[in-house]
Each structure stands twice: as structure tokens, then as C-alpha cells.
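Predict structure. Chain length: 355.
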Amino acid sequence: MSATTALHLAAEIGGPPQYDARHYVELARLAERGALDFVTLGDSFARPGLDALAVLSQVAPATRRIGLVPTVTTTHTEPFHVSSAVATLDWVSRGRAGWNAEVSTTEAEARLFGRRSAAPAAELWREAGETADVSARLWDSWEDGAEIRDVATGRFIDRDKLHHVDFEGATFTVRGPAIVPRPPQGHPVTVIDGTGGPSQEAAARHADVVLVRATAPEQAAGIRADVRRRAAAYGRHPDSLRVLVALTVDLGDAETAPEPGLESGPPLAAGGSYYRGGPVDLAELIARWHRAGAVDGFHLTPITPERDLERIVNGTVALLQHRSLFRTFYPGGTLREHLGLARPANRYALAEGRA
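Prediction complete.
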């Protein structure tokens, strides 16, 4: 990767559960002032809190450019509903939606639904991959221009531009078509944590953005190269995905030196990499890793969102912008444009020579 390749930055705005959407609106607006590509909002059936996708649907009309990426758990969730809900977020945000696919592995979560027992992670990630696959097919099941809204003839849709997906997976079948017209981005952006284990193949095959964890630029570069190789093996162009290092950050003491190389940071859940230090040193780390060609960018999870996100935007990001290493404005209006990703062609229109 060339050192001149655009740097991509994103941030998590979750934390202890909050039950007022204004909390998340303010954090998203703060991230938007820094021109970050997107914000994520974590979610899980294993903890209390508001539904992330519903919250970001509330955030959407209160923001203008920032991408909005809720965690959506595919286990115990109907794929048709996942597709419809993410497409709806893309419509209400005018093309700024993504979704972070996740799975539920515990028996306690399974008991909340009572439909099935817990399953091995490998099986659940195969199902998550199939959910991503059928979602993309459902988003394509309405071709662009399928809505004609011809009052004179009373025709709302052009039925020649609607398609049954007729998908059969290991645990579900979906006939289609969708009930939501094709989203503004064609396909909302799919994000998957592909650091290791069962999620790797789903990430390489279906993700637009792959999150990875690393404690040194050389390690990050190796993981990125492996993700791109796996994607190519599935017939994808390696440049069609972005690999971001997931980094948990603690900027509580701006004068504290960062953990050397991250190696000595305290262990976190899922083996996540950890940074403790000041905003300036964080900017140096980001710049150094990116210039080395190790990563496409960073996904930053603040230990304390209200405090650390402000220091990320007004300290770290401002310094990167001052050094012309990160943009100062959004060049486009959609999340795909922020990430430099093309709007996918419709597979059914291509098959029938209309694309």
C-alpha cells in the first residue's frame, strides 16, 4: 500500500448503556466534526441496552455526513429482517449506513429466544456469511428504477425489475424479493471483525471493511496481506475492501506516554490491542503505521466515550489534518464515498444486460 493512500478513521460511540438518544446524537456529531468515516455502536443480546440499529436510525436525521454502523447480531435473527432493517437505515441516512455483523455463542442468549440451542462459533459464522450473502441479494432484488410511481397508469413498480432471490442456506431459506427498494448505496457497507478464527472467512468473502487487531505495524501488515489474499481467493479484487486496525484507547492523562509498541498494554476482551497515552502520541502512532503501509486506517474505541472521543477529534484528528494526513471535509455524501468504495452493480440487471 502506498503511503499516499487515503487514511480512514472510525470510532465506537458505545459504552455503559444510555437510554437517551441525544447522548449518541452528540457523540456522532462530534465525530462528524472531525470528518471521521463512520461511527459504530456496539450491541449484543448478552447485555442490557437499547437496540443499536434503532438508535442510529434516530441519529441519522440529526447528522449529515458521518457513516452509521450498528452491530447487528445474525444469530437468532431472521435474515430477511436484517436486510430490511439495514436497508431502511441506508434510506433514512441518505446513503450513510453500514452494519457490523456479529454472532451469539452462549446458551444464555439462545434461551432468550427459545428457538435453538447455542452452536459452535464456526457454524454461527457460516450462518453470518450466508446472512450477508442473502442480504446483498435482497438489496439487489429491486433494480434501480424499479419504482416508477406512474399516477396516470396506476403502476407503482416495474415488475420486470423485481427479482426472487430463491436463496437456500444451511439454516434458512429466503425467496424474496425485498420489501424495501434498493438502498441508496446499492449495498450498505458490511463490516466484520476478521482478526482470527471462524470470522476470517466470512470477512474475506463478504466484508467491505475488515477490523483486525495487532500490536505492531509489521503484524498489522501481515494480517492485512492475508485478508486481501483470502478475498482474492473468493474472486474479489483486494482493493474492494478496507482493513482497519481496531484499537481501544485511553486518553485519560494527556501527559502519559503510550505503552511501548502496544505490547505491554493490559489485556482486553477478544485480545484487543490497547493504547494508553496522549492525543499527540496517538496521532504519531496512526501516522507511522499508515505511512508504513501496514493499514488502511484505524477503528478507535474510547475507554470513556464522552472524554476520549473529544480528545481524539480535537487532538489526534486535528493534528493529522494539520499535517495533511487526514481530510478536513467529506468529499462525498455516502459512506461508500468516504471509504473510496464503488457502488456495486446490481447482479440481476447485469444478468439481463440492463447494467
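Summary: DSSP finds eleven helices and 13 strands in the chain.
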